[in-house]
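Inverse folding, one chain.
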């Protein structure tokens, strides 16, 4: 696309609007990630909101809207640090989230993630045939909005106002559902059935979560089937087998024993599947990543750059060097402060040496992760990239490295061990996850910019701005949620209801792995079995893809084992809903035409995004009320024993699914 209105691409109002959207979506992602272990991609809804709000400005353009969504996309990625940081509270090391420590590691890690992917843009985006599904979709949304801008009738389907209306429907219904269930408590949030079979019990459970329904819809049928396969393997085979060979405690119900065995053993099976799946993905991408790095031309020799083509100009290397050094310096100071605070017995030289080694590990491993995640984002999309698996690998490697350092250097014998060693591992893994998540998103945004004719270096600058804004909002939101709900295994006050605590599933898993490595108690058997299961699933996936019979994503199978069934089955329901909707859209599109089919698909995408945003934001509102009131359920109008709640929740959830289906096809 030929660039016009270049002067209106990078604007103050665009940066401010992007910052506001980043604040809202970062807060929503932090809540959703702590509750269910999933976050949502915010680029497309940010693009729609940007188009709707900038629509009245005659001098606004597709390029300005693109920069807004680029900046706001940091909200869907940087919040991945919540997959590790809550573990520091579970360890008892923190009593809250120190603002500067938390914000600076997020900002430094995110900034390095942006810089690491800059040299890969030309090869992986411009010259490659990677599909970049979310980047292409975001570009299409921007193009639709730009086309409607130039039409006299901008009120029809597909206009920015129509898109915002669909997003609003989803957000409003999800917020209402969340208010009735999490606020008034008149709707149940899940159905949970135990079916006795001999001496064991099979569990069938599904959550009534609009956000999970939407996440399953966006995942697609293949991933949904894979999650279901993991769920059936876990609760239909592994947990019953473990239960049959375990001895319950006195008075312990079979259902309680099964849940205990799933949490303490079966989840490590899922961790093994996730870990080997991530390793497989990185291994298959090693050659193209190295080729991309080797073929990256020198900045000064680029013919396009010399010709003054703004659409092919990356951030100047001098800027990259200065910003990178500043980020590494900030990271060094923060890690040094963390080590000094929790390992005061270390001499200054030993502390500086340990800090330098940790930063070096994070920088080197972070670059490898950035390259792998950037390529994976182009291959399967940002949402499907195995960030959790990358975190598991980083946790294991960092823990083993510190154990080796503890054994090899006498100065660290007493400090880099036990709980403090676990804490340092988790602290550094949070930095690596920030790098991984941002790099996972950056090339997707650059693909969108490439398709609409944007300036790469401007996108890279605003994404760094998005990292800084997101980093500033993450600590207070984490504090708010922790004081309102608490985390599984860590409650801020006595008398709080553990059932209302946020699961923080990835943080719990990272802590278990790191603690198990340092204490020597890690259940390598279940991890090893998970690796074996993962290998089998990988082989099946390769065979299915080669035969053209679909796919069985190994990571999704691992998630089905690892996540609670109230999450996994709801994701599958969303995926099945998406499968039938896609069939209906294709069938009706043959009669109504391709433009109608494209508009219907966009409605589904925007409705799903709205469901996620609405539930997440309502969760934050309820969290604020709990925090200010000091009560676990300040808005509840019924007690915990309100029997119809579960069935009312099921009825309303079914009605929501029906509305979603009709809304997408109804125009």
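Residues assigned per position:
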């Amino acid at each position: 696309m030929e660039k016009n209105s270049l002067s209106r691409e990078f604007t103050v109002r665009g940066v401010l609007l992007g910052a506001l959207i980043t604040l809202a979506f970062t807060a929503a992602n932090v809540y959703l990630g702590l509750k269910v272990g999933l976050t949502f991609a915010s680029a497309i809804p940010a693009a729609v909101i940007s188009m709707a709000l900038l629509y009245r400005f005659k001098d606004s353009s597709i390029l300005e809207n693109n920069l807004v969504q680029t900046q706001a996309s940091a909200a869907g990625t940087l919040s991945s640090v919540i997959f590790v940081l809550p573990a520091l509270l579970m360890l008892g090391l923190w009593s809250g989230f120190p603002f500067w420590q938390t914000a600076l590691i997020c900002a430094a890690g995110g900034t390095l993630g942006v810089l690491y992917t800059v040299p890969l843009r030309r090869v992986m985006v411009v010259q490659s045939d990677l599909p970049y599904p979310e980047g292409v979709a975001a570009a299409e949304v921007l193009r639709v909005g730009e086309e409607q801008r130039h039409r006299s009738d901008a009120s029809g389907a597909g206009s920015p106002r129509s898109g915002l209306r669909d997003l609003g429907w989803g957000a409003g219904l999800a917020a209402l559902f969340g208010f009735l269930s999490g606020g008034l408590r008149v709707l149940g949030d899940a159905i949970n059935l135990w079916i006795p079979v001999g001496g064991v019990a099979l569990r069938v459970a599904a959550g009534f979560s609009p956000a999970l329904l939407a996440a399953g819809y966006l995942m697609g049928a293949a991933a949904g089937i894979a999650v279901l396969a993991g769920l059936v393997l876990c609760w239909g085979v592994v947990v019953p087998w473990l239960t049959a060979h375990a001895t319950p405690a006195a008075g312990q119900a079979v259902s309680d024993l099964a849940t205990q065995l799933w949490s303490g053993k079966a989840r490590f099976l899922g961790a093994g599947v996730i870990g080997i799946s991530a390793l497989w993905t990185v291994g298959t991408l090693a050659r193209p990543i190295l080729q991309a790095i080797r073929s990256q031309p020198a900045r000064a020799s680029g013919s396009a750059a010399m010709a003054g083509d703004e659409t092919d100009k990356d951030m100047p290397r001098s800027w990259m060097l200065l910003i990178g050094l500043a980020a590494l310096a900030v990271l060094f100071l923060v890690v040094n402060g963390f080590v000094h605070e929790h390992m005061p017995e270390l001499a200054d030289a030993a502390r500086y040496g340990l800090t330098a080694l940790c930063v070096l590990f994070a920088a080197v491993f972070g670059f490898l992760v950035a390259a792998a995640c950037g390529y994976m984002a182009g291959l399967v999309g940002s949402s499907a990239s195995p960030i959790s698996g990358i975190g598991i690998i980083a946790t294991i490697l960092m823990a083993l490295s510190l154990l080796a350092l503890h054994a090899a250097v006498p100065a660290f014998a007493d400090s880099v061990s036990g709980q403090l060693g676990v804490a340092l591992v988790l602290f550094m893994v949070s930095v690596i996850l920030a790098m991984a998540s941002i790099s996972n998103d950056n090339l997707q945004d650059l693909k969108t910019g490439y398709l609409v004719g944007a300036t790469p270096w401007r996108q890279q600058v605003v994404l760094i701005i998005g990292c800084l804004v997101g980093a500033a909002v993450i600590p207070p939101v984490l504090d708010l949620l922790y004081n309102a709900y608490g985390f599984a295994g860590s409650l801020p006050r006595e008398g709080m209801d553990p059932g209302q605590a946020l699961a923080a599933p990835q943080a719990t898993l990272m802590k278990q792995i790191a603690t198990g490595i340092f204490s020597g108690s890690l259940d390598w058997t279940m991890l090893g079995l998970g690796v074996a299961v993962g290998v089998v699933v990988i082989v099946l996936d390769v065979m299915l893809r080669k035969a053209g019979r679909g796919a069985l994503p190994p990571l999704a199978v691992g998630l089905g084992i690892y996540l609670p069934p109230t999450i996994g089955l709801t994701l599958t329901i969303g995926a099945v809903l998406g499968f039938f909707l896609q069939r209906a859209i294709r069938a009706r599109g043959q009669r109504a035409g391709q433009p109608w089919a494209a508009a219907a698909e966009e409605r589904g995408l925007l409705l799903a995004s709205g469901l996620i945003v609405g539930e997440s934001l309502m969760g934050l509102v309820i969290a604020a009320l709990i925090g200010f009131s000091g009560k676990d359920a300040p808005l509840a109008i019924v007690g915990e024993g309100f029997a119809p709640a579960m069935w009312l929740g099921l009825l309303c959830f079914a009605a929501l699914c029906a509305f979603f289906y009709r809304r997408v096809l109804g125009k």
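Strands lie at 190-197, 200-207. Confidence is low (pLDDT under 50) at residues 1-7, 152-158, 296-307.
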